[in-house]
């Protein structure tokens, strides 16, 4: 299974990615972690990436695409992977699609974690002293809106997008993700006297 996990900073992608990857035995590739490891090791890639990480801007597409496509050609990825934090722009998504098309192994799903903006600000501020990096937080959210959110339409048009409400506890969100119907079209609810409500386990298109 080849899956992309999408969602704004603070949506809990890393935590949920670990769980999904465990459950389906997928290689979990977290782009931010790979970039931070390069910075820590002082690699040439890390030197390029550092200023972008510090400011919350995206590392240039060609740098990240080269890094991730190279990683995806390694044998462990042949059994399936979960991408956490990549792609983050339509250009990156196109490059990924082209690469996977050449391998004859396209994506199976793009899972989008949906969180209300006030909740995100609250979660992000709770990670440390809000004053320390308020500007970076604001910038990362803006970058998400302008560069990454268009990916939702991109994957929706391909019929790959599944949106999951990411409010609630970690377990509740995991349950919703793992029970997202992937290949079974949802049947129309039976006609009952009860009025139809939004009771479909939080899994729905946005
Ligand atoms: P993350 O750990 O996923 O929140 O990413 C931390 C930072 O790494 C981001 O704010 C960006 O500066 C950089 N980054 C992570 N993934 C990407 C990507 N796909 N494209 C460009 N920059 C990225």
Structure description:
The protein is an alpha/beta fold and 206 residues long. The chain contains nine helices and five strands; from the N terminus they run E-H-E-H-H-H-E-H-E-H-H-H-E-H. Strands 2-3-1-4-5 form a five-stranded parallel sheet, with helices on both faces. Helix 4 packs parallel to helix 5. The protein is globular and about 40 Å long. Mean pLDDT is 85; it is low at 194-206. Bound molecules: adenosine monophosphate. Residues 9, 31-32, 35, 52-53, 56-59, 64, 85-88, 92, 140 line the site of adenosine monophosphate.
Query: How far apart, in Å, are the first and last alpha carbons?
Result: 23 Å
**Radius of gyration over C-alpha positions, nearest whole angstrom:** 18 Å
Shape category: globular
Instruction: Give the strand tally.
Output: 5
Average predicted local confidence, pLDDT = 85
Spans of at least 5 consecutive residues whose pLDDT stays below 50 are 194-206
Largest sheet: 5 strands, parallel
Number of H- or I-type helical stretches: 9
User: Biggest sheet, strands in spatial order?
Assistant: 2-3-1-4-5
Helical percentage: 40-55%
What percentage of amino acids are in beta strands?
Answer: 5-15%
Secondary-structure content class = alpha/beta
Please supply descriptive tags for the structure shown above.
206 residues, alpha/beta, 5-stranded parallel sheet, 9 helices, globular, binds adenosine monophosphate
């Amino acid at each position: 299974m080849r899956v992309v996990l999408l969602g704004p900073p603070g949506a809990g992608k890393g935590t949920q990615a670990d769980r999904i990857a465990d459950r389906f035995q997928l290689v979990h590739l977290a782009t931010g972690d790979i970039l931070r490891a390069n910075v820590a090791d002082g690699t040439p890639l890390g030197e390029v990436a550092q200023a972008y990480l510090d400011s919350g801007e995206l590392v240039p597409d060609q740098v990240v695409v080269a890094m991730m496509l190279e990683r995806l050609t390694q044998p462990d990825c042949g059994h399936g992977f979960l991408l956490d934090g990549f792609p983050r722009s339509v250009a990156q998504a196109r490059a990924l699609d082209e690469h996977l098309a050449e391998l004859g192994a396209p994506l199976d799903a793009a899972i989008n974690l949906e969180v209300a903006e006030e909740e995100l600000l609250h979660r992000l501020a709770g990670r440390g002293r809000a004053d320390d990096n308020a500007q970076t937080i604001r910038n990362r959210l803006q970058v998400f809106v302008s560069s990454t959110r268009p990916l939702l339409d991109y994957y929706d048009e391909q019929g790959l997008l599944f949106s999951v409400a990411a409010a609630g506890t970690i377990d509740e969100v995991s349950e919703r993700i793992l029970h997202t119907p992937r290949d079974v079209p949802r049947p129309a609810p039976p006609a009952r006297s009860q009025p139809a409500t939004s009771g479909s386990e939080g899994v729905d298109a946005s």
